[in-house]
Amino acid sequence: MIGYVTLGTKDLAKAAEFYDAIAAELDTPRMMEFDGFIAWGKPGGGAGIGLTKPFDGNVATVGNGVMVALEAKDKDQVHRLHEIALAHGGSCEGPPGPRGEGFYAGYFRDPDGNKLNAFIMG
């Protein structure tokens, strides 16, 4: 069971605007905030997501093949999340649509280049 995922960022304030908008659509508030770190989630809920400047002080980089999947409630929310991502500095990695039998998703990157998707199954 995954408790949370943490992604690195070069600009915490800019990235926070992106994730605040995504989290608002998912009705998921900030649950933790320190200097250099912010996390969104609900205690006792599903996995949360955190952003941090790397502890070692080096520049944050994107993991090749790494992606965070955000579970949407329906196809309309997949589309809204994709649109919100693009409106808040994200880039498209694949518009919302069917991806095989029973899977519907839209792919995007955050302002730091971390890859995410919004999806539904079934």
Layout: helices, strands, pairs:
Blueprint: E1 4-8, H1 12-25, E2 30-34, E3 37-40, E4 48-52, E5 67-71, H2 75-87, E6 91-98, E7 103-109, E8 115-121
Parallel strand pairs: 1-4, 5-8
Antiparallel strand pairs: 2-3, 3-4, 6-7, 7-8
Helix pairs in contact: 1-2
Could you give me the name of the CATH homologous superfamily? 2,3-Dihydroxybiphenyl 1,2-Dioxygenase, domain 1
The Rg value, from CA coordinates, equals 14 Å
The oligomeric state of the chains shown is: single chain
Q: Number of folding domains?
A: 1
Strand content: 35-45%
Residue stretches low in confidence (pLDDT < 50, at least 5 long) are none
Shape: globular
Task: Identify the CATH class.
Answer: Alpha Beta
Question: Numbering strands along the chain, what is their spatial order in the largest sheet?
Answer: 1-4-3-2
Q: What attributes does this structure have?
A:
oxidoreductase; 2,3-Dihydroxybiphenyl 1,2-Dioxygenase, domain 1; four-stranded mixed beta sheet; 122 residues; single chain; alpha/beta
